[in-house]
Amino acid sequence: MTNECIPLLQSHANCYDSGVPRQDIPMPTNGTAAQVATEKKLYRIGELSRLADLKPFVLRYWETEFPMLEPVKSPSGHRLYRQEDVDMVFRIKRLLYDEGFTIAGARRFLREHEGNFESESTGASHAAEGATQLLSRKMLLDLRDTLRAFLTLLERR
User: In this structure, which of 57, 62, 80, 149 has its CB flanked by the most CB atoms within 10 Å?
Assistant: First the structure.
């Protein structure tokens, strides 16, 4: 039987075959490649900067300002960020960019709430309290911005 007699969709052959139908025999592996692909735990600084939408120099600066952000170094000296480092970068970015913290304030907040991020099941009342604090902080930041706008308008007169 040749491949020309079999319709293309039913054929096991493709453009890279030698014309011999493929025998689906699994190749023996030690699982290393699959394990690396599914359990990637280390990110280089370029990968993390793309994930977090930050410049690499910002990440290097944050390492000096936040002692809890401490990537490991490869034998060649490259920074390798673990998953907990990636999570910390996103927490720092949220505190600085979304919630309006200063670097010192974000550092203090992260020190004070160090264990709260890992334990997601702290209870509904604790989550509601955090949401209320977040809402209050956002309202205060909005109020501050509005008052600054009014002050600018008054100063122009």
Answer: 62
Question: 41-117 domain in CATH 1.10.1660.10?
Answer: yes
Q: The pTM is what?
A: 0.51
So where are the chain's domains? 41-117
Q: What is the DSSP string of the chain?
A: --GGGS-GGG-S--TTS-SSPP---PPP--SHHHHHHH----EEHHHHHHHHT--HHHHHHHHHH-TT---EE-TTS-EEE-HHHHHHHHHHHIIIIIS---HHHHHHHHHHTTTTTT---S-HHHHHHHHHHHHHHHHHHHHHHHHHHHHHHHHH-
